Input
Amino acid sequence: MVKRAYGQFCGVARALEIVGERWALLIVRDLLVGPRRFTDLRRGLPKIPTNILAARLHELEEAGVVRRRALPRPASGTVYELTEYGGELEGIVLGLGRWGAQSLGERRPEEIVTADSMVMALRTAFHPEAARGIRAGYELHLGGVVINARLDDGALVASAGPLAGADLVLTTTAPLRPLLTGEISPAAALERGLVRIVGEPDLLERFVEIFRIGPAGEVASRDTDFG
Amino acid sequence: MVKRAYGQFCGVARALEIVGERWALLIVRDLLVGPRRFTDLRRGLPKIPTNILAARLHELEEAGVVRRRALPRPASGTVYELTEYGGELEGIVLGLGRWGAQSLGERRPEEIVTADSMVMALRTAFHPEAARGIRAGYELHLGGVVINARLDDGALVASAGPLAGADLVLTTTAPLRPLLTGEISPAAALERGLVRIVGEPDLLERFVEIFRIGPAGEVASRDTDFG
DNA sequence: CCGGATCCTCGGTGATACTG
DNA sequence: CAGTATCACCGAGGATCCGG
Output
C-alpha cells in the first residue's frame, strides 16, 4: 500500500514516512516562512531536481501537510502553503535547526545561505520574554541575504526581504554568532566593523538581548546559524 | 566531501545530513530507551537490512551521535549508545512521535509493535505535574509487548521488559487510546474487559491521569500511539 | 517566466547469503 | 553475536524539453 513503509505501528515511524524523505523537511522549512510558488522553492533549494520537488509536493499534499492554492488575480499562478497539520511541524523543524547548528562548523564554499533558512534561524534564537514591551522593525542583511523582523510586545514576525521604514538596518560583514553569544559586545562589534548599522545603536543592544544564543547554559553554545 | 549534502549552510540542513537518512531516527528512537546491541536493534527494526544498519551506525558514530562501547565481563560483546549530543535528539523524536501519531489511523496487519517504540510513546504521553508525589511501579502488556514504568515524584523511568515487584500489572486487550483520552472511564474499561489489571484499581486511575492524552485541548487528540 | 514532465545515469536501498 | 558480501532495483541527481 504505502511504498517504503517502515512496517511499525509507531508515531515516529509514521512521521518519517510522511516527512522523512529526502528534501521534504527542507521544503517544510521554507513553507513555514510563508506560502511559496514552485519557482520560489526552487530558488531556495537550488540543488533539488525539479522532478523531486514536484514529487515531494504531491506526497506532502496527499498526506495533508501541504495545500495547493490558486493565486488570485492579477498575479496568477499557484502557491503551496502548509495546512494546519503541516504548521504543527514548526517546533520540530526549529528543534532540528538548533540541534544541527551545533555541527555546522565553518561555512563551506559550496554552501549557500538563503533568506528562508535565515528567517528560521532567527526564530530559533528568539526569546519572547526579552521582547516584552518592545515594538521595533529590523532589516537584516546577513551573508548577502535580506530578511526582516518586526517585534511587537513579545511577538515576532519575521520574513524574507527588506522592510520599509525599518527602525534599524543591520548589515553583517562577519559571522554574527560572537555577537549573539555575548563573546563580543555590540559596541565592540561596531567598532571593529563586524556589523554596520543604520539607526539607533540602542536598538542593536536590544537586538542581541532578544536573539541571544548561549551562553553555554540554558542552551548549548554554538547552537544557531549566523556562522 | 560530505556525500549527499544539501549544500545549505543551515542548521536544519545539517541535521538532516546527519540523521535524515532512512532508518537513522528510528535507530535513535530505540537507543533513547537505552544502550542496545546490534542484534537488539535488528529485533526492534525487523525490516532494516543488516548492511544498512551497520552503515547507519557507522555514520552516526562518525557524526558523534552514537558511541560503541565494549560490554564489560561476563556478558561480552558490543553495545551502541547515544552520546550526549545524540541524547539531545529526544525532544525532536518525541515531537515527531506526537505529530506522526495523528496520522497513525488503524493498525495495519503488517505493522508491528515493538517494546522500544511503546516506551517512547509512553514518554510522549507523560505529564510530570500529574505525577508529583507519586511513587509506583507499573508493568504494561501492550499489544503483546511488555514494558515497565517507574514513577518517583514527578520523574518517569520507562524501559522495555517486565518489572519485578510492580504495584500494578496492566494488560490491554484493545486499543488503549480511549482510556487515555478520557472517552472511557477506568471503571468502564475494566468492566468491559478492555484492560485487565493485577493490583489496586486506584493505581489505574492514577495511570490515566499521568499519561492522559487529549482531550483535544492542550494537545490535539489522537496524538499518541496505543492504537 | 512559471510549472512542471521526460529521459537517462548512478548510487543508495532492500533482500539475502555468508563469514569471523 | 556481529557484522560483510553480493546483486537487483528503484529513487535521487542532472539535463533538457514542453505547454500555458
In short: The CA atoms of residues 13 and 63 of chain B lie 14 Å apart. Chain B is about 40% helix and 20% strand. Strands of chain B lie at 66-70, 78-82, 135-142, 145-152, 155-160, 168-172, 195-199. Chain B touches chain A through 60 residues (CB under 8 Å).
